[in-house]
Amino acid sequence: MRVLSGIQPTGRFHWGNYFGAIRQYVALQGNEQSFYFIADLHALTTVRDAGQLSQNTLDAALDLLAVGLDPAKATLFRQSDVPEVTELTWLLMTLTQMHLLEKCHAYKDKKEKGIAADAGLFTYPVLMAADILLYDSDVVPVGLDQVQHLEVTRDIAQRFNVIYGGEFLHLPNARVLDSTAKVPGTDGEKMSKSYGNTIEIFEDGKKLRKKIMSIKTDSTPVEEPKNPDTCAVFTLYRLFADEASQQTLADRYCAGGMGYGEAKQQLFEAALAYFAEARERRAWWEARPDDLRDVLIQGATRARAKGQEVLARCRGASGLGARWT
Ligand code: ADP
Ligand code: TRP
User: How many independent structural domains does the chain possess?
Assistant: First the structure.
């Protein structure tokens, strides 16, 4: 089984990215083949500052290694280090129907708001399909918002196979962790960079505490009972704490006499403890930039070998045939 996923280096990773996506990468990495990449080509559609993009890409690699991606178990690489993916994108683009892309959220949302979209944003799902299909991926762990892109990927692969008459492209499946599929942000809405409500995994202690203290809660007075199930602080706490601690805090909510500040303090402590080891690992890798580069180069070399095999198959199927040079 081959597991594959990608994540865009558009900023520092937050709790939503971790619990919605990255944690699954780590859990699945023992699989025979797991490929994880930093989607720098996709990030070009939003990050327009060269220095920022390269810094984000390095930070993404550091964050992923820090939270437990192990280069001995998983193949970690930069998307743009495998140029075959852009060639496959073109092959797929020639047979992707417009209506498939017109209904994709990112493009549709922009259009509905009257914001001009680039061709890059419109064709983003085709590059994503190529990312997945280039490596004969079986399972693609992603957050709920990416499921639509997986459906598009399957449609494109099927169309390629029907048009060229063979099982050239392997159909992948999405893997979504439902229980944590929507991590709330500081305003109680879905945590996302675009809403400015994120809490970053490696936020420093002071800022972390400040952000947690700013999480929106209702105005129930301290002495009254509170409902843990409708409170963003408790929803977040559940991600970090074991069952017994969750129960203890839930009981305190229900009993009354506890202010939200106290629950937030507990969340702060739980989050710090949860990522303590990861913080140390991040510092370790940060002090070894050459080793980090080696990890990415070795990852790209392994991924590329597989990518070249699948692209050759697709070139053959389409009539382009083997490259002459
Ligand atoms: P952002 O919304 O901050 O720009 P991305 O769209 O880059 O984040 O998301 C990267 C990955 O993290 C995706 O697989 C996405 O589904 C997941 N993800 C992002 N935010 C959340 C969230 N609040 N809850 C669960 N998963 C999330
Ligand atoms: N679009 C994905 C996101 O924003 C990132 C991504 C790019 C991806 N290519 C992929 C995810 C291939 C899974 C597989 O989160």
Answer: 2
Residue 20 lies in a domain: yes
Measured by CA distance, the residue closest to atom 13 of ligand 2 is 5
Structural domain includes residue 190: no
What digits encode the pLDDT tens for the residues 59-100?
A: 999 999 999 999 999 999 999 999 999 999 999 999 999 999
Query: What's the pTM value of the predicted model, to 2 decimals?
Result: 0.94
Q: Looking at the structure, tell me whether residues 304 and 261 fall in a common domain.
A: no
Burial class of 137 by CB neighbour count within 10 A (0 to 12, 13 to 18, 19+): buried
Same-domain check for residues 269 and 293? no
299 CB-near residues (< 8 Å, 6+ apart): 37, 71, 75, 76, 77
CATH number, position 246: 1.10.240.10
Q: Which of 77, 142, 175, 194 to mutate to test the pocket of ligand 2 (most atoms within 8 A of CB)?
A: 142
CATH of the domain at 79: 3.40.50.620
Cα end-to-end span (Å), the chain = 33
Using CA positions, which residue lies closest to atom 15 of ligand 2?
7
- Location of structure tokens 């490929």: 35
Helix 147-164 with 124-133: angle, nearest 10 deg:
70
What is the whole-number distance in angstroms between the Cα of residue 131 and the centre of ligand 2?
A: 8
Q: Considering the domain boundaries, does residue 138 fall inside one? A: yes
For the chain, the helix, strand and coil percentages under 3-state DSSP, each to the nearest 5: 60, 10, 35
User: Residue 214: which domain range?
Assistant: 203-274
Residue-wise pLDDT for 304-319, tens only, equals 999 999 999 999 999 9
As given in the structure block, the two tokens for residue 120 are 């890059």
